[in-house]
Amino acid sequence: MDQLLAMRAFARVVESGSFTRAADSLNMPNATLSKLVKSLEAHLGVQLLQRTTRRVSATPEGREYYEKASRVLIDIEDIDTAFNTAKQQPQGQLRIDVGGSTARDVLIPALPDFMRQYPGIRLELGVADRPVDLIRGSVDCVIRGGALEDSSLIARHIGNAEMVTCATPAYLKHHGTPAYPEELRNGHRLVSYLSPVTGRPFPFRFTDEDGVREMVMPHAIGINESNAHLAAAVAGMGIVQTFRYSAGELIREGKLVEILVKWRPPRYPFYVVYPQNRHVTHRLRVFIDWLTAIFPEGLNGPGR
Which residue in 152, 218, 151 sits closest to 188, CA to CA? Predict the structure, then answer.
């Protein structure tokens, strides 16, 4: 038995809660991973995992072993990295999860630069507005905006996106241009962004001398995907609040008009997030450093 490989396999099963997801993340057959874990259990003489038809969880002994094994695995990778980083380019696969409009308008346009710098890294992007489970999912990191509530994750702030309130010229000609935020309640049609997790609409947000004001109003249409959300505004369905990096070019071309500029929404924070109990590989570290350097420029968006 390769004990080190067996420890890695066992740790990934605990983190993902699934033999299949663990095997996928380690690029090995499910049967091989299962055999490694069984060999480790036989070697230790204890049951490490409790298997049911629905999920896999660590036994009390398995949880204790996982905590100790994780520290050993991190120490080994730190030693390897210390000797290899200076003389080797990072290699291997990097799985990243990112929201739809952020992928389209910020990350993907910049990725050719990253791939030129690090040709040994293979990228897999999961693109969706619904956040993945970082602990159980087979991803190395996620790029997400807004408040972060899970204290078990490490979040590195990478920038603040400008927000705009806008609509098409045709919509404003037909419904009038609101002079201040409260006028949105007077017969205007709103295009709300719905939380992909809860289904609830995000409030429209404005800033004034008293700080940030949130307005919850009935919407004409609610959409839970960022690209479709902007497309509804471009189709003339109503007023939208969205990122400047998505709407800026449309504003510059005259397809959308920014309104309520005096009460522009507060900037929206973005983070790169990863589990605190998972080692930061060399390839993930260089990606995070690169992302921190290039992201603020992309978040400013065109059309200023």
Answer: 218
The rounded distance, in Å, linking the Cα atoms of 119 and 114 is 8
Torsion, Cα 31 36 40 46, to 10 degrees, reads: -10
- What residue spans of 45-159 are helical by DSSP H? 60-84, 100-102, 108-117
Phi, then psi, of 21 in degrees rounded to 5: -65, -40
- Those residues with Cβ within 8 angstroms of residue 65's Cβ, 6 or more apart along the chain or in another chain: 10, 44, 46, 48
* Per-residue pLDDT tens digits for 147-195: 776 666 788 898 899 999 999 999 999 999 999 999 999 889 999 999 8
53, two tokens? 């038809």
> How many CB atoms are closer than 10 A to CB 290?
16
Contact 42, 80 (CB under 8 A): no
The burial of 234, by beta-carbon neighbours within 10 Å (0-12 exposed, 13-18 middle, 19 or more buried), is given as middle
Euclidean distance between CA atoms 139 and 168, whole angstroms: 38
User: For the chain, how many residues are written?
Assistant: 304
Q: Record the pTM.
A: 0.72
Q: Three-state DSSP class for 279?
A: coil
Question: What's the token pair of residue 190?
Answer: 């709103």
Contacts of residue 118, Cβ cutoff 8 Å, sequence gap at least 6: 89, 90, 283, 286, 287
112, β-bridge pairs? none
**H helix or E strand, kind and range, residue 35:** helix 30-44
